[in-house]
Amino acid sequence: MNPLHQSRQQMVRREFFRGATAGLGLPALASLLNPSGMGTVSGGESGVPGFPGFAPRAKRIIWLFQNGAPTHVDLFDYKPRLRELHGQPLPSGYADGKRFSTMTGQADGKLMLGNVEPFRQRGESGAWVSDFLPHTAAIADRLCFVRSMHTEAVNHAPAIQFLLSGSELPGRPTLGAWMTYGLGSETESLPAFVVMTSTTKDTSCGQIFYDFYWGSGFLPSKYQGVKFRGTGDPVLYMSNPEGLSRVMKRGWLDDIARVNELNLQRYGDPEIATRISQYEMAFRMQASVPELTDLSGETQETLDMYGPGVQEPGTFAHNCLLARRLVERGTRFVQLMHAGWDQHNSLTTELYNQCRDTDQSSAALVRDLEQRGLLEDTLVIWGGEFGRTPFIQGDINNRVRWGRDHHPYAFTIWMAGGGIRPGLNYGASDDLGINAVENRVHVHDLQATLLHQLGIDHEKLTYRFQGRQFRLTDVHGTVVRDILS
């Protein structure tokens, strides 16, 4: 939508309010609350008119984002020849003209490093999954593995931002922001876009969680992700100061709303409307978030399925269970970000820890959604910003310090639910896992496909900013229809 059109609409409203004896802002806000003053579970807010443009296969997304880039050649992309060439120099021709991080520089002369743990074919689909991930292996027939992903950035922050926003530079809206802008929200009691972060304990290869990973860019800030914390109140400033009752706070918010509504009429700034709605959302969340985070109603069987740490706030297991509870209650986009996969010199130590902390709960989330009838229209994505080099970083004779560098030219993700074909192994890298060669899927193609599953044509969801129409996929992207059920 064009912000100039929005401004004109505000000007028309301003003229109306100027002649009115009382503002309409307060009754409108009051209508968002039920008689008890608590937020309702249904209702929400509409998005851009015309979206979804066709019947969606997915209503919501849970992205299990693995910060630091899991090693595809050790987890999902089995390459027998890589094992055969273990300790030998990289064959010529595979990395010609390719750019790697400054830690690798030129790939010529680097020694090949075979997979650390054995691979086995799993389920009826025959998907190759490493012994590192036994729980994921057990649900292989529910998953679609895309083994031909490739990207452009060679360092973490630009690559993460590129995957989430379509641009390596901060300042563009992320997928969750685009989704909630286009489709609106389904609940009045919780944010439409929620983010949770976690890191494996005692890891030496954690990643920084920048706020722009869930930012709204040039979209109104109401569309940015709301971060739930792992300690203290899940959301900052949720608790009332001592001596301030809920009734008193309701009165304060009504007074603040009057002032903000007057300023909205005067200036037509959409950020003022955002401020009004976010104050109201925060008030409702004081009631909805404690109920959301109270796991006492979960069965022991469910808790055990997610594994150790599920009741410890801030862990990946805990966040996975909260993700299921969030989508049950109407949240559209849940972005879980788990750091610690940046194994430049710790494949034989910290990779085991990462897999232990994420494997069981990732698989449990898929199983749990399926058991509750939610997987059909919930799209779950697992993967990182790129892969890891099939050649070694470090000394081949010092196994304890084996590592792999950043690798954007081939990596693997998996998806489940939301109209994605289960039991599918799509695309392939070459015989050493260096280059995506068969049914190649670019980051923009993935973004176009995700929006398509939500009923959105990625070329039509745009926002005018600085004189041009922007979209998530920029001027690129093709829907990968072969992976759709």
Name its key features:
32% helix; 13 helices; single chain; alpha/beta; globular; Alkaline Phosphatase, subunit A
Short account of what is shown:
With 485 residues, the chain is of the alpha/beta class. The protein has helices at residues 3-19, 25-31, 72-75, 80-84, 134-138, 156-165, 175-183, 246-267, 270-293, 300-306, 316-328, 350-371, 443-453, and strands at residues 45-46, 60-67, 119-122, 127-130, 144-150, 184-185, 193-199, 226-228, 333-339, 378-383, 387-388, 406-407, 411-416, 424-426, 428-429, 436-438, 441-442, 463-465, 468-470.
Characterize the main sheet.
9 strands, mixed
CATH architecture: 3-Layer(aba) Sandwich
CATH topology-level name: Alkaline Phosphatase, subunit A
Structural shape: globular
CATH superfamily: Alkaline Phosphatase, subunit A
Helix vs. strand class: alpha/beta
CA-based gyration radius? 24 Å
- Helix fraction by DSSP (H/I, runs of at least 4): 25-40%
Tally of extended strands?
A: 19
Low-confidence regions? 7-41
Q: Number of helical runs?
A: 13
Total domains: 1
Distance between the termini: 32 Å
What is the typical, i.e. mean, pLDDT? 88
What fraction of the residues are assigned to beta strands by DSSP?
15-25%
> Which CATH class is shown?
Alpha Beta
What does the model show?
By secondary structure, the protein is α/β, with parallel strands linked by helices. It is 32% helix and 16% strand. It is built from 13 helices and 19 strands. The strands form 6 sheets. Strands 2, 5, 7, 8, 9, 10, 13, 14 and 17 form a 9-stranded mixed sheet that branches. Helix 1 crosses helix 8, helix 8 runs antiparallel to helix 9 and helix 11 packs parallel to helix 12. It is globular, with a radius of gyration of 24 Å.
